Amino acid sequence: MSxxxxxxxxxxxxxxxxxxxxxxACAGEVTAIIGPNGSGKTTLMRAITGELAAAGxxxxxxxxxxATSAAVMxxxxxxxxxxxxxxxxxxxxxxxxxxxxxxxxxxTARVIEHALARVxxxxxxxxxxQQLSGGEQQRVHLAxxxxxxxxxxxxxxxxxxxLDEPVSALDIGHQMMVMRLARDxxxxxxxxxxxxxxxxxxxRFADRVLLLAEGRVAACGTPVEVLTGPRLGxxxxxxLQVVALPQGGMLVAPMAEAG
Amino acid sequence: MVTAExxxxxxxxxGDRSGIARRVTLVLAVAMVAVSLLSLSAGASGVSLSGTxxxxxxxxxLDPADRLVLLQIRLxxxxxxxxxxxxxxxxxxxMQGLFRNPLADPxxxxxxxxxxxxxxxxxxxxxxxxxxxxxxxxxxLLPIAAFAGGWTATMVLYAIASRHGRTSVATMLLGGIAxxxxxxxxSGLLIYMxxxxxxxxxxxxxxxxxxxxxxxRLLAAAPLMAAGLIAxxxxxxxxxxxxxxxxxxxxMGLAVERTKRIAILSVAVSTGAAxxxxxxxxxxxLVVPHLLRLATGxxxxxxxxxxxxxxATLLVLADLLSRTIVAPAELxxxxxxxxxxxxxxxxxxxxxxxxxxx
Lengths: 259, 358
Ligand SMILES: Nc1ncnc2c1ncn2[C@@H]1O[C@H](COP(=O)(O)OP(=O)(O)OP(=O)(O)O)[C@@H](O)[C@H]1O
Ligand SMILES: [Mg+2]
Description:
CATH topology of chain B: ABC transporter involved in vitamin B12 uptake, BtuC
Mean pLDDT of chain B: 82
Number of domains of chain A: 1
Shape of chain B: globular
CATH architecture of chain A: 3-Layer(aba) Sandwich
Bound molecules: adenosine-5'-triphosphate, magnesium ion
Structural class of chain B: mainly alpha
Number of strands of chain B: 2
CATH class of chain A: Alpha Beta
CATH class of chain B: Mainly Alpha
Oligomer: heterodimer
Strand order of the largest sheet of chain B: 1-2
Strand content of chain B: under 5%
Low-confidence stretches of chain A: none
CATH architecture of chain B: Orthogonal Bundle
Helix content of chain A: 25-40%
Largest sheet of chain B: 2 strands, antiparallel
CATH superfamily of chain A: P-loop containing nucleotide triphosphate hydrolases
């Protein structure tokens, strides 16, 4: 069971924003999508969620995404968008409840509180969303998405988390917490596709990496294959070095400025 | 017997206001019944509530004159008040959910203005109709013209704002403002042409009143308002999703385009009908959903039915006041809703300023 993208192209307005994207993301793995601002990561995610018209092949668990109804897709995958504009003063618990209802599990107090506890927001249920900090707001939506996804494997096969920059507003502790959540979801059989800007988190948590540059695939493979100093330096247009750590893993860091 | 497990099941998460909202529904339903009985009992003639109730309970026949007042004057007026109040409040809540903006209102997107233009046309140009036709239409001319105006406005707006089956809310909002301005200009022109007696009719209609309620007018308007209300009750989940944005609503499996289309239709139908029979009754659609969101949260599954109950209650109450303050004369009800609604609305804005960026 996997997410299969074949020769995908997306036009927005008069621009071809994505060209010839190929990717196979497997359930049980964390797949990271990385690339500079404007390289097309969000556009790719929106094509995968079925929001955008796209040319090429696009299937999830063997189903053609564009031929599947929104209601069915909602039981196969849950999506965290890069930004979620909330219109009315909902409490935290009410937002998570909206997600839980979609997932089909009855939105009991236990389900809601469990989802909040997983993102370190235990006791925040009665707070108004608009009165939370930016990072707390991001974690509320993550809790909603987790509540929608439910168990990593459902009757129809693996479920998927599609996360567009899930840690962009988070401190390092909560970044680690969220990435562990994603990795555990995959370890239990679910699929995770996450857009990330942090190359060190990518190196540490991703099983596969898709590097986008100007709407095309610059590289795709394991972190060790994709994350090399010269390649990253070229794509991000800044001098980067990749250092292997003695205890395993690697560190991506800017080169010292000359002079 | 409530076992420990079902008790666990029934417990609501801290911050989940759906339990309170349910209790508010009950309270509002009781209030609506109480206000309705009060409204039936009050009026220029001396029919009293206790006498009426006692007679009804004992199965006795009412005094024929009392019977006439109750059945032909107060009852249709009460029914009209309940329906118009519910229609205005629910239309407001639906429009706000659709536009994701607590300040949206059918008055804002030109639907009320379109219905108004229809009514004004009927008042000013109605006399120009061929004599036979005017006589045949009689009192129906004004409501029919107002339905037509509101419906046309909605259709024009829909043509402006939607393309290939997709509706852009921003275009609709801006198009609605332009439409309201155009309609207002046309209305102004007609008012300029009106003679003195027409001007009096116009002023009275424009301020809003239920004084013209009768079974005939109710029968013409009630099915439309009822249809709009019933359609609205099916929108709750979709509007909840839209509160998180169109993308998130789609991610959560909701039929976004269908929700938008039904919302537009529901608002057009109930607002057109309400404006036709009651003129310009403002603030109900703005204030009622606001108050309820403050008390029980924005979840539309509770907001929409509660708005129907509270809107109905408040409008009947306002009508009661309008009939009793200066009895035996009547104040237009629109004056009362504006007098009560305006300050409440400003107070809400001031309170909310710090919480929600409107
Ligand atoms: N509606 C649109 N019409 C035309 N071009 C668009 C539209 N939306 C996005 N683009 C362009 O498509 C490109 C890819 O945008 P996208 O949002 O996918 O970037 P991204 O990789 O997610 O960037 P970031 O890291 O900043 O989130 C950008 O150049 C952007 O300007
Ligand atoms: Mg992006």
